[in-house]
Specification:
InterPro entries: DUF3099. The protein is mainly α. The protein contains 2 helices and 2 strands. The chain has one domain. Strands 1-2 form a two-stranded antiparallel sheet.
């Protein structure tokens, strides 16, 4: 019987990759906020209110969006800790036996 094979694609992103992704999202949102603040200097009429709301509300949404984890976190990851090396059963005459091989942990001397 064979256990489920581990795939590298079933692993979640590394902490560095996830952090980088969150920082990129946050930087983009804060850049849009800076543009809104700059546009406040030149806007007139209802555009002034539009850019003011953007400059006030964007920091909240930037933090919330940056802190939302990826949806893949809930995926169950198969851990390779249960992998056991299968060695053939030693025989007295030196020939291999037809019996089932004995499972031994890795590093266990025969």
């Amino acid at each position: 019987m064979r256990s489920q094979q581990q795939s590298i694609t079933s692993l979640p992103p590394s902490p560095e990759a996830e952090r980088r992704s969150r920082m990129i999202k946050y930087t983009i949102m804060m850049s849009i906020r800076v543009v809104c603040i700059f546009c406040l200097l030149f806007a007139k009429g209802w555009w002034l209110a539009f850019f003011a709301i953007g400059a006030i509300v964007l920091p909240y949404f930037a933090v919330v969006i940056a802190n939302v984890g990826s949806a893949r976190r809930n995926v169950e990851v198969s851990r390779p800790g249960g992998v056991v090396q299968v060695l053939p059963h030693p025989t007295t005459d030196g020939a291999e036996s037809d019996a089932e091989p004995e499972a031994r942990p890795e590093g266990d001397a025969a």
